[in-house]
Design a protein that fits this description.
Elements lengths: L2 H10 L23 E5 L2 E4 L4 E4 L14 H13 L8 H11 L7 E5 L2 H16 L3 E5 L16 H4 L11 H4 L2 E4 L4 H11 L3 E6 L13 H14 L2 E5 L11 H6 L5 E5 L9 E5 L1 H4 L18 H14 L3 H15 L8 E5 L2 E5 L11 H5 L7 H9 L2 E2 L8 E2 L6 H14 L6
Parallel strand pairs: 3-13, 5-6, 5-7, 7-8, 8-9
Antiparallel strand pairs: 1-2, 2-3, 4-10, 9-10, 11-12, 12-14
Helix pairs in contact: 2-11, 3-11, 7-8, 12-15
Length: about 425
């Protein structure tokens, strides 16, 4: 038995499923998970001493790779000064100023500890601003594990035995309206029926937690138009796409100015973080300025704030995004002309779907269900044994980082093509 297998058996005795987030358990691919001890650059190392080229990158925060020196130095310096203060401090101020000076629609920002917390708070602000109760979300978009958002959501539930979750507050769920992605007619019908009651429409402009489902700009534009017509706030959930697909996220990429936006992952440089922000008129409703209450003991933790600022400073001139786009295009080009794997990509985000690319991109759960894929588990384990670590779920996306080399990207493409060579086209 490997050390990872032994640790997993021990972990199951003291933690649910042996893990602290479901997808880590390898339930979607089978077998025991690898227990990792650390990473450097594009590599991650397990307790048995095996190295893997990492395309999970902590599920997105590590856009600069593992162990980036400037981020590490900033975090170490912060720890040396005091790693938790519980007071007003200059570090969150620096990060907030850095963001608000560069993203026009984020005029004010509040830091929290997770994407789930950011979404929960943004929804509360929307209800407080509009005096309405209902929220519109979209099938296949994941917004964390707050009750009202666990309906037809993301990858952690795609591999589960039930579609949403047990233990949800059904009174809370009655306030959530769900629409399909990529369907203007259904969207318009939802607004016709519920528009006067909708406090907010929340959407991942780059849905990336139930596969990568790139949306047409025209569809996002229609969402924005209907929100404006009905006095409904538009919330972009950019926990994954924020500072990942560009410094201004998907909103900047597609040319939108949402009323509120949520961030996470990249803005903490790999430390626990979340944030919600947006137009000042809405953010001023948050306590202590206004009547919408939100608080947190560890909010704006100095280590995360300093690591996040060190990360954003390395991204701000755009050169790393140019490099990441080139690496993504290189990966995409390797799959041109084959008929076994659909590769969907936006910048440094990518997703392998084990079905023919014929028929064009997948943009909704309905389209995905109409084009069933081959089992992901065998392919995942083939790559794993070959030293490539993908997220252990068919529905999780992959992440390129500034630390990945062209040779490593080529090796990923070659390994995936070899592992799927016998799949039907």
């Amino acid at each position: 038995m490997s050390t990872s297998s032994d640790l997993f058996e021990r972990a199951k005795l003291v933690s649910p499923g042996g893990v602290h987030s479901p997808v880590r358990a390898f339930k979607g691919v089978g077998g025991p998970p690898r227990f990792m001890t650390g990473g450097q650059g594009a590599l991650i190392t397990d307790v048995d001493g095996h190295n893997y080229v990492d395309y999970c990158m902590a599920f997105g925060p590590l856009i600069l790779g593992h162990g980036n020196k400037l981020v590490r130095d900033a975090a170490v310096d912060a720890i040396g000064r005091g790693w938790s203060l519980g007071t007003a401090e200059p570090y969150s101020l620096e990060l907030a100023e850095y963001i608000t000076r560069r993203i026009p629609w984020v005029q004010s920002v509040r830091f929290v500890n997770s994407g789930t917390e950011a979404v929960m708070s943004a929804l509360r602000v929307a209800r407080g601003a509009t005096n309405r109760d209902k929220i519109l979300k979209f099938e296949g978009c994941y917004h964390g594990h707050t009750d009202s958002m666990l309906i037809k959501s993301g990858s952690g539930l795609a591999d589960a035995s039930q579609p949403d979750s047990a233990g949800l507050d059904h009174a809370t769920l009655s306030g959530t309206v769900v629409a399909p992605l990529d369907d203007e007619a259904a969207l318009e019908a939802v607004f016709e029926r519920h528009g006067q009651d909708l406090a907010a429409a929340i959407i991942e402009p780059v849905p990336a937690n139930y596969g990568l489902l790139p949306q047409r700009r025209q569809y996002l534009q229609r969402v924005a138009e209907l929100c404006k017509q009905h006095g409904t706030l538009l919330i972009f959930d950019e926990v994954i796409s924020g500072f990942r697909v560009g410094f201004q996220g998907a909103a900047g990429l597609y040319g939108f100015e949402p009323d509120l936006v949520t961030y996470g992952k990249v803005i903490g440089g790999g430390f626990p973080v979340g944030a919600y922000g947006g137009k000042r008129e809405y953010m001023e409703l948050v306590a202590p300025s206004g009547p919408v209450y939100q608080a947190g003991t560890l909010s704006a933790n100095p280590v995360a704030m300093c690591a996040g600022l060190a990360t954003l400073r390395q991204l701000s001139d755009g050169s790393l995004y140019t490099k990441l786009e080139a690496q993504g295009a290189r990966l995409e080009a390797a799959f041109a002309g084959q008929n076994r794997v659909l590769l969907q990509r936006i910048g440094s985000l990518f997703w392998f779907y084990l079905a023919s690319p014929a028929g064009g991109p997948l943009r909704s759960l309905k389209a995905m269900q109409a084009r069933p894929a081959a089992p992901f588990g065998p392919v995942f384990h083939t790559l794993l044994e070959g030293g490539i670590y993908l997220a252990p779920s068919a529905f999780e996306v992959g992440f390129l980082s500034a630390a990945h080399s062209s040779a490593q990207v080529d090796a990923l493409a070659a390994a995936m093509l070899a592992a799927t060579a016998e799949l039907p086209g």
